Amino acid sequence: MIQKSKYKIAVSGAAQIGNCPKGVGSLAKEIGKEIIRQGCILVTGATTGLPYFAAQGAKEVKGISIGFSPAASEKAHKKVYKLPTDCFDVIVYTGFDYAGRNLLMTRASDGVIIICGRIGTLNEFTIAFENQKPIAVLEGTGGTADIIRIILKGGYRGPKKTIYSKNPKILVKELIKLIKEEKRSAK
Question: pLDDT tens for residues 154-177?
Fold first, then answer.
């Protein structure tokens, strides 16, 4: 039995996975499933690649998936951006292109998971970091995910609320713990 959804967890990762290691799509799908199994709602950028695989995983276990689109309408989402709609229960058409979509999606989430990724994923990470969101990084998935430790060390501001794991189940569980701590301290 899936418990009542409490937290919104964003999955940020490469929309084009050609530079990611083999098997990362399966890991993203497992992250989507774990988010639902652990009683949360999946949030993505309503895009292709790893966020889409996470949305597929969420749907496979009958979870709720919310997508934030860069487009202003469903028509533009499909025709101009060429993005999917099939795995989302709700799509918010932001009309703010990718940078604005990234900001709204990240700010609307309680925590963010980073998988592989390119510049857009780095943008979502920095938004989450600057907004002091709990962040979980799926290690060993390449791209942005594998350079975040270096970025944080070189940024001289410490890791803040950033955790790491190679295990999707543990990563989601630990992120939820961070989110709970964040909610408790905000009271």
Answer: 876 766 799 999 999 999 999 999
